[in-house]
Amino acid sequence: MHEGSFDQRHLARRIVVQRLFERSFKDSDISKSQENEFNNQSLAEIDEDSEPLKYDKQLADKLFHGVIKYKDKTDFIISKLAPEWPIEQINKADLQILRIAIFEGFIENLTPEKVSINEAIDLAKEFGGTPSGKFVNGVLGSLLNRKNEFSRALKK
Q: Minimal CA–CA distance to 46: which of 100, 95, 6?
């Protein structure tokens, strides 16, 4: 699918997954920041062959910085919901997608919880296929069903 077929919010999430994924290879701790790392120039490099990408820049910025800020909280939640999968063993793209969805739909409430879950499943399928989609669905579905248990961790 070409980027033009995605809505601007979906594309923003996609770009954030890519940036966090890239960062996870540079340093296993995505919280370590480089000044101005997430800027328009670096985003333009993602798709050099076409005109500048049209995406929701405000959402991308909120998601990127929010995932970094709340990484410890999201990782705690993920580790409790998927105890058979230690954080360091989860597929790097799936991990970033889970972090984004938990921040977006459950911590910051930028979108309804079910919207963040559906977006995460779509992204997981794009980046990792059906098994990733099922894994992400399972973790986030459990969070939706058990969110009262995590109410303290979900507070900002």
A: 6
CATH fold of the domain at 3-150: N-utilizing Substance Protein B Homolog; Chain A (1.10.940)
* Six-digit token string for 41: 């120039």
- Classify 47 in phi/psi space as left (phi over 0), alpha (psi -120 to 50) or beta: beta
Q: Supply 15's token pair.
A: 């770009």
Confidence (pTM): 0.81
Instruction: Give dist(CA 118, CA 50) in Å, integer.
Output: 28
Whole-angstrom CA distances from 30 to 21, 25, 34, 37, 135 are 9, 9, 10, 12, 22
Helix residue ranges, H only, 57-129: 57-69, 71-81, 92-101, 113-128
Structure tokens at 140: 């986030």
pLDDT of residue 6: 56
